[in-house]
Amino acid sequence: MAQTNLSQTSMGHREGFGSTLGVIAATLGSAVGLGNIWKFPYVTGENGGAAFILIYLLFASLIGLPVMISEFIMGRRSNAASVGAFKRLAPGTPWFLTGISGVIVAFLIMSYYTSVAGWVYAYIFKAMSGGLLTTDPKVSEQAFTGFISGVWSPLIWQWIVLLVTGAIILAGVKKGIERITKMLLPVLFLLLIVCVIRAVTLPGASEGIAFLFKPDFSKITGATILAAMGLAFFKLSVGMGVMTTYGSYIGKSESLFSTGVKVMLADTCVSMLAGLAIFPAVFAFGFTPDKGASLLFMTIPMVFNSMPFGGFFLTIFFILASIAATGAMISLFNTPVAYLNEELGWSRKSATVVTGLMMALIGSTATLSNSILANFKLFGMTMFDLFGYATDNIMMPLTGLIIALFVGWRLSKYDVADELSNGGSLNNRTFVKFYLIAVRFVAPAAIIVVLLSGLGFFQFLK
Ligand code: PFF
């Protein structure tokens, strides 16, 4: 969802988030998005359900959270965005290249994220026009595949998404968006709960609930574990420096640890609600959970259509999903823009326009993966799948690994402890110890093992 304070003030000093709630809202604004509503359910569906979720939770706490806190530390300590933070904390060294790799990752994620966000935007209008009013799974599936396999319509929606996000970045809408986010996040939450209540009371829902809560570890492979780790990076928006930039806006009296924990818990809640809204419906309507990227678009319309005022609620659902997606995209789009602006001295306007045009160009290859580029494959994947796979499963973990090593080993322990305890004013020494163990040993070791085994360098699972 939305966020604030992405640029420096005209006075040259950085603005900060206004309040503790503002910090959480803004950070959650980046974290909560299509990752929760679209990606989490479909990747869980493809990887067997509950056992995958347990592994995901393990990675979110052992890797995602420490890396998020490390990014906060870097940002607040240096008072700079992702690339600048490395330059200030380790001047004259090549560490800043990690920041640049984060910029590239953000760009590549945007290339396919805008495509999916385009589908979500389009579904608002389809829902409004009554075009999705069916409870027949075949019609629902056909409506979606028919739409995305077109050429112009999905492309134009992707461009609209880029225009909207670019315009928000340019306008630098700050306080307004922060206020709207604080109001809309609870509404999204409530609507998801309505959805969950309907979904779990559908006849035949129990199979879906069991799928989400009864782990079957026989489905777990090295590739599944890699997907769970990638999802943790993606959903928490870590491993590319977005949270470093946010850290630089966090006030000196906020606790970085409790901010990270709250964001992780809230993000997990939204994902679980999305799962509970979708999987009971998957089984009740006779879909299979491994339908991939189309899962959300086929099941959610049917859940709403099987209740009173379904068309109305469906429209609201997609409006909220669009807002959530846009908030996440602002943080992604802003990453290359901030780099070009703050590090290379471009004006914010040229940086935004050039970044947007490049995203439209590269992003169109993802969108057209469902039509004219369906047979164009690199490493056996369409461009849509390749962007997702490479960023989730290779680039974010690698960048996250280097961030963990940087904060764990390059920064001094005393600086890290000082930043985490707000100059000694927070009484959290035990936590600092745990954090240091996680960031120096646990997270790097886990990332290396999962990455190497997931990519097939060695096998400890089938
Ligand atoms: N966390 C966002 C989501 O779940 O939709 C996606 C995202 C935003 C990933 C920002 C990475 C990022 F830096």
TrEMBL record:
Subcellular location: Membrane
One GO CC term on file: membrane
Membrane topology: Multi-pass membrane protein
Organism superkingdom: Bacteria
Single GO MF annotation: symporter activity
Coiled-coil regions, chain positions: none
InterPro entries: Na/ntran_symport, SNS_sf, YocR/YhdH-like
Keyword Transmembrane: yes
Keyword annotations: Membrane, Symport, Transmembrane, Transmembrane helix, Transport
One Pfam family here: SNF
Main location: membrane
Ranges that cross the membrane: 21-38, 50-74, 95-124, 144-171, 183-200, 220-242, 263-287, 307-333, 353-374, 394-411, 432-458
Statement: the UniProt record of this protein carries the keyword Secreted: no
Family recorded in the similarity comment: Belongs to the sodium:neurotransmitter symporter (SNF) (TC 2.A.22) family.
Stated name of the protein: Transporter
Species of provenance: Desulforamulus aeronauticus DSM 10349
Organism ancestry: Bacteria, Bacillati, Bacillota, Clostridia, Eubacteriales
